[in-house]
Amino acid sequence: MTASRKGFLIGKVADRTGITVSAIRHYEMEGLVQSTRDAGGRRVFEPADIRRISFVIITQKLGFSLSQIREELALLPQGRTPTKKDWQRISRSFGRKIDERIESLTLLREKLTGCIGCGCLSLKKCALYNAQDVAQKWGAGPRYLMGNTPKN
Hints:
single chain; mainly alpha; Multidrug-efflux Transporter Regulator, Chain: A, Domain 2; 3-stranded antiparallel sheet; 3 strands; 5% strand
């Protein structure tokens, strides 16, 4: 039997989400979902946990860490099924983070073949964009990709 009267057993959740039972156990250990136990000691998940797990899968594919995902999921109500409004709030928050990533990736795509302010000075063009290693004054790493510009 894969469904209990309270929710879904872990095997059914795995079938519905397309991930392994061990991944679901890991997500539970990470605090991303919570189960209860039935009389036989089996894990039982609420139907809303399928959405939570799907959210985790998608956001991980977008490059978010489990700690970032956990932080957002912590904003959802405990003890009741999240509403559309609850999910919209998380969507807005992640939407801003996704927009920031898109901006960073766009900048990376545009600057990767030119000077990125890394301090290597290995390209002749760097002598123009990063003469005398001026990017170093903002710190280590690819400063122009991290938001600094040759003008600031």
